[in-house]
Design goal:
It is a single chain. By secondary structure, the chain is α/β, with parallel strands linked by helices. The chain folds into two domains: 218 residues, Type I PLP-dependent aspartate aminotransferase-like (Major domain) (Aspartate Aminotransferase, domain 2); 98 residues, Aspartate Aminotransferase, domain 1, CATH 3.90.1150.10. Helices cover 35% and strands 18% of the residues. It has a seven-stranded mixed β-sheet with strand order 1-9-8-7-6-2-5, with helices on both faces. Strands 12-13-15-14 form a four-stranded antiparallel β-sheet. The chain is globular and about 60 Å long. Bound molecules: pyridoxal-5'-phosphate. The site of pyridoxal-5'-phosphate has 13 residues, from helix 2.
């Protein structure tokens, strides 16, 4: 926790302390479990498309109302469409939510927002009394200067935001499992400290990340660890560049892939996400993820990942280009 506080927060000018950091086995579990400390009548707002865990865990908790199979939406969820028209960045919702899930760099679109844009969300959350659950699992992939690495770079975030982080994407801990959640002590709902609530929930239901894994996590912040991370992130971002440029040259409408290891593309010729999936599989022997799986606004989009070997990435892109 000291290494995290020092390297991820103090080094970026944020005042997060070690005792505001909760170590866990990853951002998937934390992003799914965090809703347990909120009331079941609280309303959530999510980007659409979105990492499915946020919505699904709230569905399981009974917080989302009824399902409309035609529209593939829940009556109790505020959806914030992220489409090409708005540069895949959500707009402040008309209806006031209690919890706002934001994820930047984004899965699935690979989009990011600037520090000034994120500041607007922080100001909004503080104004309406909402809590932002900020998933920064892909923080290591940020390459542009105006993109914030943590929400605590925004003024006032410690009174409205919880941040989730992962060692999976930066350091390849996907199987080893390690992550953390930051809940500042200043974050209160009325008189209730969310830090205390999560400390109780985490201590009651979670046994702690293994010592050996925590030591491996600490090594991520050593000089050698930092150099290896840089190399690994650069490797995947080189894949992302190859996909992005290759598909663009082939006439596809593509985005993402600059601050994130995901490329988001529009299915061509009016195909649905799943039609394009079948088309790619059958004609190029390439698989990707249909955008509709991430929410209704993901329909007609498709996600490609840069998390492969360079050789496979080149082979896949070259096959798509020949279609
Ligand atoms: C947005 C987002 N958050 C969290 C996770 C999961 O991270 P972890 O491996 O730390 O559980 C993923 C990975 O799929 C993700 O895309």
């Amino acid at each position: 926790r000291n290494a995290i506080a020092e390297n991820d927060y103090k080094a970026r000018g944020c005042s997060i302390t070690a005792d505001e950091i909760f170590i866990s086995d990853g951002a998937k579990c934390d992003s799914g479990n965090i809703q347990e400390i909120f009331s079941t009548d609280n309303k959530i707002a999510v980007c659409d498309p979105v990492y499915p865990v946020y919505v699904d865990t709230n569905v399981m908790a009974g917080r989302t109302g009824t399902y409309d199979a035609g529209k593939e939406t829940w009556s109790g969820v505020i959806y914030m469409p992220c489409l090409a028209e708005n540069d895949f960045a959500p707009q402040l919702p008309k209806e006031t939510p209690d919890m706002i899930y934001l994820c930047f760099p984004n899965n699935p679109t690979g989009s990011t927002i600037t520090k000034a844009q994120l500041q607007e969300w922080v100001d909004y959350a503080n104004k309406v009394g909402a809590v932002i659950i900020y998933d920064a699992a892909y923080e290591a992939y940020i390459s542009q200067d105006d993109v914030p690495h943590t929400i605590y770079q925004c003024q006032g975030a410690e009174t409205c935001a919880i941040e989730l982080r992962s060692f999976s994407k930066n350091a390849g801990f996907t199987g080893v499992r390690l992550g953390f959640t930051v809940i500042p002590k200043a974050l209160k709902c009325g008189q209730v400290s969310l830090h205390s609530l999560w400390a109780r929930r985490h201590g009651t239901k979670y046994n702690g990340a293994p010592y050996i894994v925590q030591r491996a996590g600490e090594a991520v912040y050593s000089e050698a660890g930092k150099a290896q991370l840089k190399e690994q992130v650069a490797y995947y971002m080189n894949n992302a560049k190859y996909i992005l440029e290759g598909l663009r040259e082939a006439g596809y409408t593509v985005s993402g892939g600059v601050n994130a290891p995901y490329i988001w593309l529009k299915a061509p010729k009016g195909m649905t996400s799943w039609e394009f999936f079948d088309y790619l599989l059958e004609n190029a022997n390439v698989v990707g993820t249909p955008g509709s799986g991430f929410g209704p606004s993901g329909e007609t989009y498709f996600r490609l990942t840069a998390f492969g070997s360079y050789e496979n990435t080149v082979a896949a892109v070259d096959r798509i280009r020949k279609l």
